[in-house]
Design a protein that fits this description.
single chain; 576 residues; alpha/beta; two-stranded parallel ribbon; 8 helices; 25 strands
């Protein structure tokens, strides 16, 4: 059949349909609902296999969802005033060419949940006023480069849940008015940078559930109006430090459920207006200090399901002065929270820390006076004095709630789901039902530790004194005895001189009188060696006691051995 015959057939169908509609405007197909006043018709779930042509030709709204329609050939040409068409949940495999040529008034078209495999060059010819196009949940794997050439005012395009891998370079070039683009759940390997250049008014971009491996330096072009970027559930393991630097208006960023092992602090710090950040489901091992540096406008932070996380720095959130809510659930290796972790967040009101490995909590962990909601259930708490504060807080919260009946004015705690894991006799008992007397801590180990420490110190001091005093005493005593013995037996005055450290004349000049004098001194020293440097002056006047010296301390201990009722005689030393 030639092209002229096809055109004549098409016009004949339109004329017949219009005539039929004018003659039976108040008629409505079986299992359809029609309203001529609103110029609307709904044939949803009507078991239709073709598009009915007997509907009001002036209809503006037609709903054909949930039927068995598989062909749209020459069916909408005579509904020229149609603005909204929903043909989702049918069996359509091909939209054909120029089937919407006469629907220039159409603004919303929903063809989701069908079996479309491709989009041809002239599929949307005629839809000059279309602003919303839903092609989600089909099997589209190929889009012609000229498919969207007529959609210059399109604002929303949904291509999610298809089989797209890539796009030809200029596919999105006509879509200069596009604000919302969803490419969720396809098989896209790289961010379509070349096509995103044309959608410079884009505000929402969903690239989640694809196979994107990295965000490169030029991965996302300059999109000054982009507010929401969703990259969750990809296989991203690296984000270049300049990956987001051309997104000045970004508010929401979702990087959850990827393969990142470190928080991309440098890349995130470029997003000065970011308010919502999702990083759950990655493989971070620690949250370091200033992990969210320069994110001063951040309000909501999601750090849940980080199964490799075991350490959080106490300064991790210090830059996030506007943080209001934080989610840290199901981090199964997190067994402790650093003290005052959230005290740099003056606007924090909601904390969620469920199903972690926390055994205890300290009041210093949280800004209790500002909190509105605290969820901490699912942790293996040891119910002792370390969480008595929480028990009292939960009791006060429960009592206040019963009296006021206004949960918005008090701290809400999920205490009804908090259970003890230890000690053994409290295991699996609901936290709030445990008597206050059970929240005790034995001080025995503290006493033992103090006693052991005290004894250790005393032994160390005494041992040190004995260690230094023993050789000192032995050295002085033995040396004095040896010198005096030698002098008395041999008359060797030189040895006496060396032992006492005094300067003497030569042996030829010494005489018996000198020897006698030295013998007298030696006898005195031998019988009472403590008299060396004796304390014949008062302690407070002796300059030796004003020095912080171990030697003087040892001398003091030696002097204290002299009975208090005896005053050592000052030896009379004669210098020759």
């Amino acid at each position: 059949m030639g092209s002229r015959s096809v055109a004549k057939w098409r016009w004949w169908v339109v004329v017949v349909a219009c005539a039929w509609g004018a003659a039976a405007r108040t008629l409505c197909p079986a299992r359809c609902a029609c309203d001529d006043t609103l110029r609307a018709a709904s044939c949803a779930n009507a078991s239709l296999e073709i598009v009915p042509i007997q509907l009001n030709p002036e209809a503006t709204h037609i709903n054909l969802t949930h039927n068995a329609i598989d062909n749209l050939l020459y069916t909408f040409g005579f509904y020229t005033q149609l603005t909204i068409l929903d043909i989702s949940y049918n069996k359509i495999q091909d939209l054909g060419s120029k089937n919407f040529e006469n629907n220039q008034e159409m603004t919303h078209l929903n063809v989701s949940h069908n079996f479309l495999k491709r989009l041809d060059k002239d599929t949307f010819i005629g839809l000059k006023g279309l602003v919303d196009l839903d092609l989600s949940d089909n099997e589209i794997s190929n889009i012609h480069a000229q498919t969207f050439k007529a959609l210059s005012v399109l604002e929303k395009l949904d291509l999610s849940n298809n089989k797209l891998v890539s796009f030809e370079a200029n596919t999105f070039e006509p879509l200069t008015a596009l604000k919302i683009l969803s490419l969720k759940n396809n098989s896209i390997l790289d961010i379509p940078s070349a096509n995103l250049l044309f959608v410079f008014h884009l505000e929402y971009l969903d690239l989640s559930e694809n196979l994107i491996q990295q965000v490169s330096k030029h991965g996302i072009p300059y999109l000054k109006e982009l507010k929401n970027l969703d990259l969750n559930s990809n296989i991203i393991d690296n984000v270049d430090q300049l990956g987001f630097h051309r997104l000045p208006s970004l508010r929401h960023l979702d990087l959850s459920d990827n393969n990142m092992t470190t928080i991309p602090t440098s890349a995130l710090s470029k997003l000065s207006n970011l308010s919502h950040l999702y990083l759950s489901g990655n493989f971070f091992q620690n949250v370091t200090a200033l992990s969210f540096q320069s994110l001063f406008h951040l309000k909501h932070l999601h750090l849940s399901r980080l199964y490799e996380l075991d350490k959080i720095d106490s300064k991790a959130f210090v830059d996030n002065i506007n943080l209001q809510k934080i989610w840290m659930n199901e981090n199964v290796k997190v067994s402790e929270v650093p003290p005052r972790l959230f005290h740099g967040n003056p606007k924090l009101t909601h904390i969620y820390m469920r199903n972690n490995a926390l055994e205890t909590l300290e009041a210093s962990h949280f800004p209790i006076d500002r909190l509105q909601e605290l969820e901490i259930s699912g942790n293996p708490y040891v119910c002792n004095c370390s969480i008595l504060w929480l028990w009292k807080l939960a009791r006060e919260s429960e009592i206040s709630h019963r009296k006021s009946g206004n949960a918005s004015t008090i701290l809400k705690i999920d205490y009804e789901d908090v259970r003890c894991s230890a000690p053994e006799h409290l295991k699996e008992i609901i936290f709030i039902q445990v008597p206050e007397s059970e929240f005790g801590c034995s001080n025995g180990w503290v006493i033992v530790a103090v006693v052991v420490l005290t004894v250790s110190i005393v032994i160390s001091v005494v041992g040190g004194v004995l260690y230094f005093m023993g050789p000192l005493k032995k050295c002085k005593g033995d040396k004095s005895k040896q010198v005096m013995t030698s002098v008395m037996l041999n008359g060797d005055v030189s040895k006496l001189s060396n032992g006492l450290g005094y300067s003497t004349r030569s042996r030829e000049q010494e005489n018996k009188r000198d020897v006698d004098r030295y013998l007298m001194i030696g006898s005195s020293v031998t019988n009472n060696f403590h008299s060396l440097n004796p304390p014949w002056h008062s302690v407070d006047k002796n300059p030796y006691y004003q020095e912080d010296s171990e030697e003087h301390i040892y001398q003091q201990f030696a002097y204290e051995t002299i009975p208090h009722h005896r005053t050592p005689e000052k030896p009379h030393i004669v210098y020759v």
